[in-house]
Amino acid sequence: MSNRVAADRMRIEPLSPVIGGLVDGIDLARPLDAASRARLGDALIEHKVLFFENQIITPQQQRNFAASFGKLHIHPIYPQVEDVPEILILDTHVDNPPDNDTWHTDVTFIETPPLGAVLYARQLPQNGGDTLWVNNEAAFSALSPTYRAFLERLTATHDFEKSFPRERYATTPSAEKKWLAARARNRPVKHPVIRTHPVSGAKGLFVNEGFTTRINELSPAESRAVLDLLFAHIAKPDFQIRYRWKPNAVAMWDNRATQHYAVADYLPHRRVMHRATILGDRPF
Ligand SMILES: O=C(O)CCC(=O)C(=O)O
Ligand SMILES: [Fe+2]
């Protein structure tokens, strides 16, 4: 089959006017041809999060799919699939409760936060464990012009420790060693509060409750008030999609223009997800 034919077989159904697209007619286990890659890249920017259902993929195939979009990040804390370090494992159960039930954009604690991520459902609870995504550009557009202009002048600090606190992640001597090394390599970084998408040019909010600790140009009390307002604003249902996972579904999101929240309602049941994280560029 020619590349053009493979790309033409792909169908993308918008799931809401604001965010989300369901992609059909593509097998992620197969190498991605250039035309399909280009179409998915465009769809990712348009819909912000894409869902692919009924995908049977190995960790290597998941890594290869993600790697067609850029270099992959190796997470400093989360465990990895043996021999496939680019795939991190989120295996949550009673002894390892979920820690992603906060609105966040992944890995904003580095200078070049990820462009995107590819998340695969390996084991799901009977029900529950949905994930929500927000369109940060829609959230920004909904603010008043005066407030948008104010925010465009600001920068914020993002800190690894806010979501990976020592108390939780340094509980054994070997975990402490890993955590100390991770902290040493991931000192707090500064990003603009409003980010311009490097491909589309659209502006979006780029602060998140997971990692953003303060707005640099404001007093601590002013910073707190602005962040509280923005964190409440992005959580409005108007800007979001809630996805009810199916076994073997894959979600791929544009991490430059979204944040997400993994609902922690399924304990004592177990949920296992695999994630590949694609590195991006320095926000501006
Ligand atoms: O488990 C999920 O649904 C999402 C977890 C998460 O925050 C992530 O994979 O980045
Ligand atoms: Fe995440």
Describe the structure.
The chain has 284 residues and is of the alpha+beta class. It has a single domain (3-278), classed as Double-stranded beta-helix, CATH 3.60.130. The protein is 28% helix and 27% strand. It has an eight-stranded mixed beta sheet, with helices on one face. A three-stranded antiparallel beta sheet has the order 13-7-15. β4 and β5 form a beta hairpin. The chain is globular and about 55 Å long. The protein starts with a helix and ends in a 6-residue tail after the last strand. The relative contact order is 0.25. The site of 2-oxoglutaric acid (AKG) has 10 residues, from β6, β15 and β16.
Note the topology:
Layout: H1 3-9, E1 11-14, E2 21-24, H2 34-47, E3 49-52, H3 59-67, E4 80-81, E5 84-92, E6 116-123, E7 131-135, H4 136-141, H5 145-151, E8 155-158, H6 160-163, H7 166-169, H8 173-185, E9 189-192, E10 194-196, E11 203-205, E12 212-215, H9 220-234, E13 240-243, E14 250-254, E15 258-262, E16 271-278
Parallel strand pairs: 2-3
Antiparallel strand pairs: 1-2, 3-14, 4-5, 5-16, 6-14, 6-16, 7-13, 7-15, 8-9, 8-12, 10-11
Bound molecules: 2-oxoglutaric acid (AKG) and fe (ii) ion.
The site of 2-oxoglutaric acid (AKG) has 10 residues, from strand 6, strand 15 and strand 16.
